[in-house]
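Team,

Forwarding the record for the chain on the shared tracking sheet. I've put the sequence and predicted structure together so nobody has to dig through attachments.
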Amino acid sequence: MTNVQAYTYTGRNAAGKLVKGRVDAASESVVASRLHGMGLSPVSITEASDGTGLQREISIPGFTKGVKLKDLAVMSRQMATMIGSGLSLLRTLNILADQTESKPLSKVLATVRNDVESGTSTSDSFAKHPETFPPLMINMVRAGETGGFLDGALNSIAENFEKEVKLRGTIKSAMTYPVIVLIMSLVSVVGMLVFIVPVFKKMFETLGGQLPLPTMMLVYLSQSMVYVVPIVAVVLIAFALWWPRNKNTERVRKFLDPIKLKLPVFGLLLKKIAVARFSRNFSNMIAAGVPILRALAIVGETSGNWVIEDALRKVGEAVRQGRSVAAPLAEHPVFPTMVTQMIAVGEDAGSLEVMLTKIAEFYDQEVEAATEQLTAMIEPLMVAFLGVVVGGMIVALYLPIFNIATLIK
């Protein structure tokens, strides 16, 4: 493998102005060749150090930010525009590596540029970075390279990622308020049990008498917080360390994903999201010319749910045996009847791509409407929940006070 090194350079452009910069390359000669391609005459080229003290880039394991889907969408759109305008692939990658705001993506693009410069195809270079470029993007780029429509494939990728980002944003905005209210209620409850209830307990003990049952239960919960809080804290820390490493394993997904689809209210929403994602990705893959068996495998991986991934794996086996796509899809209840019927019509009419696009648009609208309804329904329920929990604790604390006069006598 080529050892890539960082170099700083000073070059002079056609107007005679000095231009300074930093590039990653295999050798000084490669840097000089790249500068000539950029229209610069090299003045000096030196190896760049990693920096010392405050200039050194610090990377903390577990806290390093990855490449976001939004960054990939912007990169794909820009790359399609530049290639469509006639810029060479190397110059396009060089510009993208320099101007992208995401540092992790900038580093990966610099590596991709070096690979392409040494004769590797863009899709093969993307495939070396599966943590950055999803299988959908790699295969669509490969299809675009093979068919000679790389800019069109990149535009399709950008549109796909932009819709996915919008979908995720809609879901996050719908869930933000309930999560905040839930956290506030939990913090309020724990705070009252740890700090307020013990004060009332001492006051009740000095007065004597029998405490009401709700107050006794509250006091018992307060006393148990001494053991519960440390145990819960340890469990949460352990889960926070375990979850990122295991959430994508087949064993965990096989257990959790079917449960997600059966949840009341949320299950139907998650199902619509998965179907919308499947339809949109499948449509884009077919439009890019990816073989249907390969497309089924990829859209299964990108569906976000193990149930759909397993179903599409079985559908792929059926298609390999000579069956259509719609017939084996209908055998899996996770796909609504409307979806399978429209796919069947699309196959018969030779317009499968168009039908899948319509299905994706329909379910995108369904998800948007469902999240709006969910938000409208959850807000009053969460406020009522917070009122019942905190209000119930306050009532339980003040019940003994009604008997204070009797106790004093």
